[in-house]
């Protein structure tokens, strides 16, 4: 390895290539200067800079080729270290893909070392611990030697974004890896989002967990020529996957006769047949919003039939989304809101005028969704056999929503089929609302109860909670894991004021 050279590329002292041809400063303080350049102005300038910074150095006169050789040696030892780390990172990616992780978190901390986690089915799983130095090298290799940004230097103290998309650097199941970093108190956090390549081959929404009624509603929304169709839910609720499949199905059904353009910040999944436009990286939230708005305006001028906007998040983008629908386009987008009807509150909170958003040709439909874990069929357990492990009040809640404890299964201890987690994948719980004049009238009059009755009673739509209860009743989902995502199962029980008594519970 030898002693490090501080004037190397990206080394401690930033110097020009020209100067690097004349001198080399070693870590031990020896400043090697090629004889021919001893009195060169740049060389003298560099010495002055060192003195000014209080760096102690000794001049060693040498031949030009010795100076050049010194850079070559450090370069190759750096390269070798990078290659080892590249191997380590590719191996880490493959392990994460095998666990079907959505993200890899690398927390690098001087006090707490480097801790690596996988996010699997929405939970962080601790994987392994390394030294601070290891984490530092691993992350700088991933950023500098593997990401698409060719001349970027990884800086611990900055927020940075990048992407890895070169085929030989990522497992074949992935389409790419998105990197986001941020400094933390005594180190930094490095998050890799794994972008899976399960593109449009399988467009069946049933496989994601939607019911037949949901699919009928979505098919109806697809046939509406104009209007915004909003997919609502928090981060990590599977909105992008739903969008990708719906758009994929439109492309395959219309055999490419529709011009679909997307504006994505950032693009998550490939949608073959659509023109996907990324929003350029911007430094601040404000700049980002501006870039996003520019991209939406550009998309509207590019003669689209269908526009997909990755997210409505502020007043300008919500206005543009509505405007795109009003100018005769079908628009698909996502928003953070908790319930189907809550989506209208969200738009109103952002400042969209009620008159605009309560026109069913402007807002055509809402799909609200979450993801809940599905039980491993090999090791799940009947709740009735595990009854003693649960507090009475929890079981009462299940009975209140008319679940028969006989039908309900809970998470088991895990087996080799589920990597000892007791769960296998996740499934959608959802509700769909197709808008019409009557519903919009209730919303315009801020008649919440009227809207609820119309959607769930008159039109027979099921709430997301009811969809979750159906899946619990079918033994697919653990009721308590579902509650982690959708909240208490009895919360939506507005019609019933019947509480289960302890006697009834004992009899069950
Ligand atoms: Zn299992």
Structure description:
The chain has 508 residues and is of the alpha/beta class. The chain folds into 3 domains: 17-62, no CATH class; 77-196, Beta-Lactamase, CATH 3.30.450; 205-507, Rossmann fold (3-Layer(aba) Sandwich). It is 37% helix and 23% strand. It is built from 16 helices and 18 strands. A 7-stranded mixed beta sheet has the order 12-11-13-14-10-15-18, with helices on both faces. A 6-stranded antiparallel beta sheet has the order 6-5-4-9-8-7. Strands 1-2-3 form a 3-stranded mixed beta sheet, covered by helices on one side. Helix 7 (285-301) runs parallel beside helix 8 (315-326). The protein is globular and about 90 Å long. Residues 494-506 have low confidence and may be disordered. It binds zinc ion (ZN).
């Amino acid at each position: 390895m030898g002693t490090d050279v501080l004037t190397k590329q990206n080394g401690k002292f930033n110097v020009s290539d020209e100067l690097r041809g004349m001198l080399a400063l070693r870590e031990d303080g020896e400043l090697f200067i090629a004889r021919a350049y001893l009195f060169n102005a740049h060389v003298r300038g560099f010495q002055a800079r060192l003195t000014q910074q209080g760096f102690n150095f000794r001049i060693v006169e040498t031949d030009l080729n010795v100076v050049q050789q010194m850079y070559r040696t450090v370069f190759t030892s750096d390269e070798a270290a990078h290659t080892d780390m590249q191997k380590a990172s590719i191996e880490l990616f493959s392990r994460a893909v095998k666990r079907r992780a959505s993200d890899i978190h690398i927390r690098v901390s001087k006090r707490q070392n480097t801790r690596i986690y996988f996010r699997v089915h929405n939970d962080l799983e601790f994987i392994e611990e390394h030294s601070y130095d290891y984490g530092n090298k691993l992350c700088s290799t991933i950023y500098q030697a593997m990401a698409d940004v060719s001349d970027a230097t990884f800086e611990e103290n900055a927020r940075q974004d990048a992407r890895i998309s070169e085929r030989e650097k990522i497992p074949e199941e992935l389409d790419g890896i998105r990197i986001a970093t941020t400094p933390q108190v005594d180190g930094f956090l490095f998050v890799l989002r794994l972008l899976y390549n399960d593109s449009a081959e399988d467009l069946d929404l049933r496989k994601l967990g939607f019911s037949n009624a949901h699919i009928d509603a979505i098919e109806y929304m697809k046939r509406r020529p104009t209007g915004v169709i909003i997919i609502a839910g928090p981060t990590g609720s599977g909105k992008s996957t739903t969008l990708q499949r719906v758009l994929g199905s439109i492309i395959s059904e219309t055999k490419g006769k529709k011009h679909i353009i997307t504006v994505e910040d950032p693009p998550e999944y490939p949608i073959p047949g659509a023109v996907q436009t990324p929003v350029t990286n911007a430094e601040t939230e404000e700049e980002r919003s501006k870039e996003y708005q520019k991209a939406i305006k550009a998309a509207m001028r590019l003669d689209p039939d269908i526009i997909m906007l990755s997210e409505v998040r502020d007043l300008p983008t919500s206005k543009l989304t509505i405007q795109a629908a009003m100018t005769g386009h079908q628009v698909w987008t996502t928003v953070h809101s908790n319930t189907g009807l809550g989506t209208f509150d969200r738009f109103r909170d952002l400042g969209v005028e009620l008159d605009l958003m309560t026109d069913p040709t402007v807002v055509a439909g809402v799909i609200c969704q979450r993801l809940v874990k599905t039980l491993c069929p090999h090791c799940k357990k009947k709740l009735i056999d595990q009854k003693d492990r649960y507090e009475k009040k929890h079981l009462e809640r299940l009975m209140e929503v008319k679940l028969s404890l006989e039908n309900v299964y809970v998470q088991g201890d895990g087996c080799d089929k589920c990597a000892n987690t007791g769960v296998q994948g996740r499934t959608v719980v959802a509700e769909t609302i197709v808008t019409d004049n009557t519903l919009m009238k209730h919303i315009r009059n801020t008649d919440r109860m009227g809207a609820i009755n119309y959607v769930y009673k008159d039109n027979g739509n099921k709430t997301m909670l009811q969809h979750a209860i159906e899946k619990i009743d079918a033994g697919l989902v653990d009721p308590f894991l579902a509650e982690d995502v959708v909240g208490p199962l009895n919360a939506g029980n507005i019609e019933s004021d019947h509480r289960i008594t302890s006697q009834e519970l004992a009899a069950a």
